[in-house]
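tl;dr need the bound structure. longer version: we got a ligand (BIS(adenosine)-5'-pentaphosphate) that a collaborator sent over and nobodys looked at where it sits. i said id run it. heres the input, straight from their email, havent touched it
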Amino acid sequence: MRLVLMGPPGAGKGTQAQFLASYLSVPKISTGDIFRMHVTRGTELGHEARRYMDAGDLVPDEVTIAMVKERLDEDDTRDGFLFDGFPRNVAQAEIFGDMLAAMHTPLSVVLELVVDDDEVVRRLSGRRTCSECAHVWHMLFDPPSVEGICDHCSGKLFQRDDDREETIRHRLEVYADQTAPLVGYYATSGLLEGIDATGPVEDVTARAVASLRHWGQ
Ligand code: AP5
């Protein structure tokens, strides 16, 4: 199964990707997570990506594509993958399509998590991430037992720099301008499946799994 999970910032892509990748037994590849890992390690790529991420803009395509190509060359992607947050514009989708065609491994399906802007702001402003194990919590919808501390590993929780309200609004504009056109792009190729991403996490997962079963998984 070669799956792309798309949707606005805060739609729950990372949350659902974790369950779905395990359900499908494929690696979850989040371009946002890879960029953040480079930022944490202080690499040159991280230094360049950070400027764009903090502003809520897309990292330039050539940087993103080179990173994705390198990741796809790893052995664990041979039997499938789940991309979370890539592709993010039509240019990336076209190059991605060419890369997969050259490997004779076309995409199986694109799941779009559908949720409105107010819910996005609610979800992102309450998001907290563990600095040790990277588990994602929510202050209201999925709070840890002790405020600011991860239940799984006792690591300290932090708020992402791009989760400030004004940056969230800008990320939503970037999504509408640059990423939303992918809905039409993938619908035309017959690969798109929209999923109602409102309500409890387990309900969204159940809808996504039902949809994947419909696609033969
Ligand atoms: P990225 O990390 O991909 O950010 P994003 O797409 O903005 O998505 P988020 O990670 O913010 O949200 P999510 O949908 O994963 O939601 P989550 O599951 O955490 O990218 C960051 C930046 O990297 C970009 O802005 C860009 O600069 C750069 N970048 C990345 N990919 C790129 C690319 N391809 N090209 C160029 N640049 C790129 O959930 C959010 C919160 O809601 C959590 O607290 C969670 O617990 C909670 N939650 C989840 N589901 C529910 C639910 N059903 N009910 C209640 N709460 C819920």
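gonna send this back to them w/ a short note. The chain has one domain: 2-26+79-214.
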